[in-house]
Amino acid sequence: MPATARPAADWRFMLASVWHVIAFGFGSGLARKAPGTWGSMFGWFTFVVIDRALPVFADGRWFALTVLAGFALGVAACGITGRRLGVSDHGAMVWDEILAVWCVLAFLPTRFWWQAAGVAAFRLFDIWKPGPIRALDRRIKGGTLVNGFGVMIDDLLAAAFALLLLAIARRLLSA
C-alpha cells in the first residue's frame, strides 16, 4: 500500500482551516528560516498592540483568563494541524511561541530593552531546551504528549525559565 503524501505546510494549507491559521500564527510560522523566531516576534508585536488597545494584560485575572483560553485554543489548533500534517510539532506551528512570549512580556517592564531581553531569553530557552524542557520535548517528539498539549507546554516551561533568568538579572541590576 503506497504511503499517502503529507500536505505541505504552506499558505494554501494554512488558509484551508481556521485551526491552521491559528497554529501557524496567522502566517508568521510560514517563514522559510527561523519560523519560531518569527512567531515570537509576531507574539511581541501582538502583545504590544493588544496591551495598548485593551490593557487586559495589566489585570491579573484577565491575563490568566487570556492565557488559559490561548492555551486551550493552542492545544486544539496545534493538535488538529499536527495530525493533518502528520508531524506532532511541526516548525510552522508557532502559536505556542506567541502565547509563551505573551507570558514573558506580561511580567516585564514595558521598556523596549526589557521586552527585547524577554523575547531573546525565551528564544534561548526554547532553542537550547535545558533539562526539563528537553525531557518534555522528547516526549512530544516520541508521541507520548500529543494532541497539542505537548506542543504548548514545553514553550510555557521555556517562558518560565526565561522569566526566572530575567528576574535574577533585574534583581542584580537594581542592587
From TrEMBL:
<comment type="pathway">
    <text>Phospholipid metabolism; phosphatidylglycerol biosynthesis; phosphatidylglycerol from CDP-diacylglycerol: step 2/2.</text>
</comment>
<dbReference type="InterPro" id="IPR036681">
    <property type="entry name" value="PgpA-like_sf"/>
</dbReference>
<keyword id="KW-0442">Lipid degradation</keyword>
<feature type="transmembrane region" description="Helical">
    <location>
        <begin position="94"/>
        <end position="114"/>
    </location>
</feature>
<dbReference type="InterPro" id="IPR007686">
    <property type="entry name" value="YutG/PgpA"/>
</dbReference>
<dbReference type="Pfam" id="PF04608">
    <property type="entry name" value="PgpA"/>
</dbReference>
<keyword id="KW-0479">Metal-binding</keyword>
<dbReference type="GO" id="GO:0046872">
    <property type="term" value="F:metal ion binding"/>
</dbReference>
<keyword id="KW-0472">Membrane</keyword>
<feature type="domain" description="YutG/PgpA">
    <location>
        <begin position="21"/>
        <end position="169"/>
    </location>
</feature>
<feature type="transmembrane region" description="Helical">
    <location>
        <begin position="62"/>
        <end position="82"/>
    </location>
</feature>
<dbReference type="GO" id="GO:0005886">
    <property type="term" value="C:plasma membrane"/>
</dbReference>
<dbReference type="GO" id="GO:0006655">
    <property type="term" value="P:phosphatidylglycerol biosynthetic process"/>
</dbReference>
<keyword id="KW-0812">Transmembrane</keyword>
<keyword id="KW-0460">Magnesium</keyword>
<protein>
    <recommendedName>
        <fullName>Phosphatidylglycerophosphatase A</fullName>
        <ecNumber>3.1.3.27</ecNumber>
    </recommendedName>
</protein>
<keyword id="KW-0595">Phospholipid degradation</keyword>
<keyword id="KW-1003">Cell membrane</keyword>
<dbReference type="InterPro" id="IPR026037">
    <property type="entry name" value="PgpA"/>
</dbReference>
<keyword id="KW-1208">Phospholipid metabolism</keyword>
<keyword id="KW-0378">Hydrolase</keyword>
<feature type="transmembrane region" description="Helical">
    <location>
        <begin position="156"/>
        <end position="173"/>
    </location>
</feature>
<keyword id="KW-0997">Cell inner membrane</keyword>
<comment type="function">
    <text>Lipid phosphatase which dephosphorylates phosphatidylglycerophosphate (PGP) to phosphatidylglycerol (PG).</text>
</comment>
<keyword id="KW-1133">Transmembrane helix</keyword>
<dbReference type="GO" id="GO:0009395">
    <property type="term" value="P:phospholipid catabolic process"/>
</dbReference>
<keyword id="KW-0443">Lipid metabolism</keyword>
<dbReference type="GO" id="GO:0008962">
    <property type="term" value="F:phosphatidylglycerophosphatase activity"/>
</dbReference>
